[in-house]
Fold this protein.
Amino acid sequence: MINAPNLDDLISVTPAGRKIDVVLVSIDNFQTQMTSLATFRENNPGVRIITLAHEYDAESLFALFNLGVNGALLDDISQTAIELAFQLITEGEKIYPSNLASIMMERFHFMASLELDTIDMLDIELSPREHEILECLASGDSNKRIAIRLNISEATVKVHVKSILRKIKVDNRTQAAIWALRSQPRGTGGYATSLS
């Protein structure tokens, strides 16, 4: 077993020629660690990833699933259960909380409803600032990161996000990001393609 303070350091402390099969990542802040997870997954597609966290909300589980994380466990799990999880994941299984299925169904129903939506997107009027913030949402940025990127306050970001959700008639940030990706004109360099 190799220990490292974070994913960025894991590769550098791994002895040459040593193959990494499974990594166990302790998550204490999804906002800051999701980018690191995405980068690690992109650079190490064959490595299986298990996350440990105190709790998971629906958005975090959906983001982890989209990143290709193989398992999401609670940090109060027993050592025996962790060993079993490792065994199942090395055999190709995925281990997620049982409520993920219902979360995924909600997302699929929402995306299907978007396909059937007859609202003309050109009729929705977003301000230039709202377009910028929607692009940030499609990139998976937090309110704090959006505020830094656009040099505005977090309170201002929250007001704009609320306005965007109302105008495009969705309930949350993930749905807004999906809407943004779907509404991007073909062949443009507009919204990013990651929800992480």
